[in-house]
Amino acid sequence: MKIVDGHCDALTKLYQQTKLDFNQDVLELDVSFPKLQKAGVKVQFFAIYLSESIPNPSFDHILQMIDIFHQKVTSHPQMRFIQSASDWLAIEQTEEIGAVLTLEGMDALAGNFTYLHILYHLGVRCAGVTWNYANWAADGIMEQRKGGFTKKGKLMLKEIESMGIIVDVSHLSVAGFWELVELYKKPFIASHSNAYHLCPHPRNLSDDQIKTIIQCKGLMGITFVPYFLDNAKSTVQISSILKHIDHICALGGESHVGFGSDFDGIEQWVKDLRHVGDYGNIIEALCKNYTESQVEAFLYGNWRNFMLRNLPK
Ligand SMILES: [Zn+2]
């Protein structure tokens, strides 16, 4: 069964630990070519995330991470950079694995829309406005003042709407979310967030937010961060992931839910989900509870449909 994973931080590790080899099945990398191949992942999203350990992140750092993406990830003969719907359709005819390039937080763009355009030209196709804290565009979800977008941030939303970069609301503040709903008229995603109703962590989305994503024909990627799944338990099981899927389906989201693991961005893991190669354990659990076509949609079809509609042709 084919899989799409809508979020990982492997690029950050490859950037910080220069000896790591994406082509080797090493313990340090949750996402590597051998693990993607083992699991049957057909498309993996790779986030450009400038870790908090980089002081004063600049556009130059983003470019360095894009360089790493090409040197270490797309250089594999069986990996293909996906920038358009036709790229996606093309890999379905081959054994290749697709790689989508995304940006997690616009801090390093420093309000420069030319940088945003350059990222589009370089193939970035999804972008989160913030990480957890405030930047020039908006407040992140952990920012104490709980603000929304700045004036410049609102202008940015108009700019990005015309460009073909999909906006990602994971990490955005609640006020920012609702301002975005008013201002941004295209479908958007939450690449790695879960249901607040089941796990009241600020990074998760309320039922009203989830219903809004469904209404806009967007997509929500269930993430495997244990404390976003069940913050009452020290050991979180795959069954917790199924509860979030059940909940989103109950809100009408059966065609709008997929996965966004956050592998390589986490230091705790769900039991039996230590790395991307373990997706088979989710498939097994899903197949006990859902029909084959539902399981196919959660793992692949929903992300595929969304991306084919929203990527450049
Ligand atoms: Zn994140």
Description of the molecule:
This protein has 313 residues and is an alpha/beta fold. The chain has one domain: Metal-dependent hydrolases (TIM Barrel, Alpha-Beta Barrel), CATH 3.20.20. Helices cover 39% and strands 12% of the residues. The protein is built from twelve helices and nine strands. The strands form two sheets. Strands 1, 2, 3, 4, 5 and 6 form a six-stranded parallel beta sheet that branches. Strands 7-8-9 form a three-stranded parallel beta sheet. Helix 1 (10-16) packs across helix 3 (59-74). The longest helix is centred in the last third of the chain and has 19 residues, at 292-310.
How would you summarize the topology of this molecule?
Elements: E1 3-5, H1 10-16, H2 33-39, E2 41-48, H3 59-74, E3 79-81, H4 85-91, E4 97-104, H5 113-121, E5 124-128, H6 151-161, E6 166-168, H7 174-183, E7 189-190, H8 207-215, E8 219-222, H9 226-229, H10 238-250, E9 257-259, H11 279-289, H12 292-310
Parallel strand pairs: 1-2, 2-4, 3-4, 4-5, 5-6, 7-8, 8-9
Helix pairs in contact: 1-3, 4-12, 10-11
The structure holds zinc ion (ZN).
